[in-house]
Amino acid sequence: MRLSRDDPGLPLYHTDTARGYTFRRIRTRARHWLSSRSIGVKVCIAFTLLFALFVLVKISSGRRSSTQESYISNQEEIIINEQVIFAKNERVDKAEKKNDDFNEDHVDLERLPDSDDKLQDDKIELAEKHANVVKFTGPTNDRQRAVVKAFQHSWLGYKKYAWGHDTLKPVSKSYNDWFDTGLTIVDGLDTAIVMGLEEEAAEATDWIQNKLTFEKDRMVNFFECTIRVLGGMMSAFYLTGNRMFLEKSVDLGDRLLSAFKSPSPIPYSDVNLLKRTATNPQWGADSSLSEVTTVQLEYRALSRASGNSTYEDLSFNVSKHIHKIGCETHEGLCGMFINANTGNFKKGATITFGARSDSYYEYLFKQWIQTGKTIDWLKEDYGKAMTAMEKYLYRNSEPKKMYFIGELLSGETYSPKMDHLVCFIAGTLSQGSKNGFPQKHMDMAEKIGETCHNMYDNPTGLGPEIAHFNMIPGKEDLYVKPLDAHCLLRPEAIEGWFYLYRFTGDKKYQEWGWAAFQAIEKYARIPTGGYSSVVNVKKIDVKYRDSMESFLLGETFKYLYLLLGDDQTVLPLDKWVFTTEGHPLPIYDH
Ligand code: DMJ
Fold this sequence. Notes:
CATH architecture: Alpha/alpha barrel
Strand content: 5-15%
Largest sheet: 3 strands, antiparallel
Bound molecules: 1-deoxymannojirimycin
Helix content: 40-55%
Shape: globular
Radius of gyration: 30 Å
Number of helices: 19
Number of domains: 1
Distance between the termini: 75 Å
CATH topology: Glycosyltransferase
Structural class: mainly alpha
Oligomer: single chain
């Protein structure tokens, strides 16, 4: 039943006359009550009222700023290097929100230089001078010459059947596009430069200058595009001093920054290069730990070269955020998923040094190196994580005692499984021990490096994607499940042996690298051009996956070439830091 205004069922003050009477009566009583109180009581009441007013104002201003967040669509646009990145209020609100909720360093987009002075000439001159000092004279022995030939064979196949596309399908003599940015060219260029291959380097440079465009209406993976394309071009810039590479990198970097249009310091995983939009991965709500924490070397180099600090600031905020929230349950070992909307780790996620986490640990260390060892917490977080790795994950097999790094499934259950990807840590640990970390790190590096070599003990001599280890006496130490037996010609084991050889001078690492190279030649080479990933490393009746990954040129051949060189002062590790994709970038003093 609906009540009318004059309904007798309503309380008295719901009629005008009665309400006026009631208020007058209350006011008179209140005045009378107050006049009969002491001064002290009156002061107390006044103070309480003022405090209540203050609280009300606070609450209402908080409400207002969160309401403002939903009105971002019709705002003025912010231009960064001639490109629209954020709607203005969206940017301001996000900056405020990041400061309020996440307390990361405010990234002041207003500080950005105008497009006119976006590339600072003094920085470019510096890079040009730097590049002039770097001379690559080509191979000095037969093994290096063989690796150069292999690189040329892969280049030839790519050129014949896939030029301008992302990757070669060497068996079907066709191509595959993932980002549609000529991935093999940009990822492989700096290897051609390092090998002294002037013709291939010139072809790549010409294509990047005249054909490469990022006006692509497709979603690309923010991390992969950063480490392969941006990293490749930034390395080429620093190795040659050619400012065209920097200009292209700025263009790509501005587009990729869209990933940071998230409500937390954690970027989204996928970016549309044309529309400059970003989303979570299609397969789930979370971003991978390794992906969000493995872009910082590249963006720092871009910022330092271009004079635009935004790339470095936004990407470094990710590291700062993770440092701040910490991974205390496992003393510095983090779960593999983190959410770009909340900025929080997914509870109960697997802890691993393999896929989805690996290079988080690598970039803690390498950022410390890149910034001239000036940021102590990077070193501390890395050291703490390595101690925890030894405690929770580092185990040995039986009966031969191969040392490996296993996983904690759901953050709890130990699994003696190691991805080939984990072999990178042999390199990082050995470099760490030469930069102030304990000798124990070198011991672990050598043991893991050896286990990675054992993983190659297969009929083809190639390494599998994943190995499992036996921890009970009496059985085989290492076994490969059929579904894990494929080989993408990944670089990590060879990368580890390269660092170990540089730091120990033990020639066994060169021998291991040479054996792996010969296996690639024997079982992965496609006569018409290129090399193919294989289906099962245990079968010499090889079946091909018909794909040649860009990192074969960007990393695997580069590390082989450097490992097998007589001159181990090429690209000295106190001047250059290798990105996770094997692209050398300069080390700064800050
Ligand atoms: C490369 O793209 C990078 O090394 C990345 O960090 C993970 N692994 C692949 C090659 O295996």
